[in-house]
Amino acid sequence: MVNLNINKKKKKRQTHFNSNNKAPYMSCPSTCQHPLMSRYFMLHIFSYILCISHIQAMPGLKLLRFLSIIVLLNIAAGSTRIMASPPAVKGAYWPSWSQTFPPSVIDTSLFTHIYYAFLSPNNVTFKFEIPDSTAALLHNFATTLHRKDPPVKTLISIAGGGADPKLFARMASEAKSRKVFINSAIEVARRFGFDGLDLDWEFPKDPKEMQDLGQLFEEWRNVIQTEAKSTKKPPLLLTAAVYFSVEFLWAETYRKFPVEPMKKNLDWINVMCYDYHGSWDTTATGAQALLYDPKSNISTSYGLRSWIKAGMPPQMVVMGLPLYGRTWKLKDPNVNGIGAPAVGVGPGEEGVLTYSQVEKFNKENGATVVYDVETVSTYSYVGTSWIGYDDELSTTTKLGFAQALGLRGYFFWALSFDAGWKISTQASRAWASDE
Ligand SMILES: *[C@@H]1O[C@H](CO)[C@@H](O)[C@H](O)[C@H]1NC(C)=O
Ligand SMILES: *[C@@H]1O[C@H](CO)[C@@H](O)[C@H](O)[C@H]1NC(C)=O
């Protein structure tokens, strides 16, 4: 049993899983071809060569294993095809509490959609009560980002990792409260000039709440369509931030997201492909957002495929990328791979460092940086400090994977963590466009 923290902020989630499993791969005829596959193949080869030439320590790398990953990927990716694709989503969440990172400093050429994080309704009336200070932030956010060159779309993200999931469970359980919530959310989005709404309820806790979530989206979309008709404005976007996997296989209570109503009523889903390992398990280091886990299903490749297998069209799936790392204190400085014994958290508050802080830490302390080909993740260590994170290379490789699956795009948590726009710039360039 491990704890799997999947929240953006601080909450813990109990999970159970059997550790000697293998990630399943979709099958498809060997004749499958994919226009982006060769590009992805080249990228992976490229990252492989890059790391042989740059990094002395390459623990656990076996060429055979690496080649088999490529072959399996080829097969998996061949089963989806990009049709006339809607424009890519390059999203990012903006933490409204970050005092030092106003919307005016955002480089909008790197993004298409920016989410204001977060708003929550009153926990009794389910209406949004906006204090003057928040009203000023919302107004400034939407206005500034729409006036930038180029402009980006803005969405209000509701709930978030720090919100009380029970509030949303109560709201979604009755037609009357759903209606109040929906009308109030739409009114707030329009009042401040936003282009859409995003729900980040972490998470419905049982099958009944999952069903209520589906009902909520059904009614929400109806009201959005009606409102758009009567105001003659483009309909608001409606999106949701979701768990990395469509099912909660490891939790005490099995439940699965209501794919049908989500597919019918949302514009896309933001899949939170991170927080697989962290301070809730200090016995071993972990790659918190790894693409492949040879030992378990808790990985981005498994999670994204689970959504697609469950019927979510790839074009409605947006892959989440972390702009932060998670740290551990090694038991033995000489045993420093992924899964190495640890005795606590490493640098950073609760073992979390933003990408900018990781870079600074590595530089100041002369840390050894390792790109791990097997998992597609990056880690660094020096002394007993160990940091698992994503750099430009691991991010780019994941983006290649997402494109090969035919996904709609990617999003970052969170904007201010990559102060020099390094990863954001690299990601925007790497996302090859078909147009
Ligand atoms: C991993 O996922 C596959 C398919 O969903 C399943 O058959 C397998 O039992 C899972 N492994 C574990 C350990 O949960
Ligand atoms: C609503 O929020 C208030 C203030 O945070 C809290 O004291 C109260 O217990 C909450 N009510 C419910 C029903 O959760």
TrEMBL record:
Protein name as catalogued: Uncharacterized protein
UniProt organism field: Manihot esculenta
Organismal lineage: Eukaryota, Viridiplantae, Streptophyta, Embryophyta, Tracheophyta
